[in-house]
Model the fold of this input.
Amino acid sequence: MRHRKSFRTLNREPKHRKMMLTNLVKELIDHGKVDTTVARAKEAARVANRMVTWAKQNDMAARRLAFSSLQDKSLTEKLFSEIGPKFQERKGGYTRVLKMVPRQGDGAELARLTWT
Done:
């Protein structure tokens, strides 16, 4: 039973799931959009929103938390210098999940994850 489970497992082991979501967020920070399945996009949006909240705090502890997840200095700097200040007045909901046409091969529901 899934009582009180607040996340999707995405049929992955915990380490694999964490790295997959982190890679999606890295692509979002780097390119501004990511095309993936709907479930992955919704979970990656949760991670990205958390990172933007850290970027809005803009202190050393928040930078260390973001770097521990991203493992990339340039992406961490971009998060704190460009993306964080852009959402400074906004209270939440920094990402948007837009549904797209199903994938040709297997008919999976696709979505585009972007910044608002």
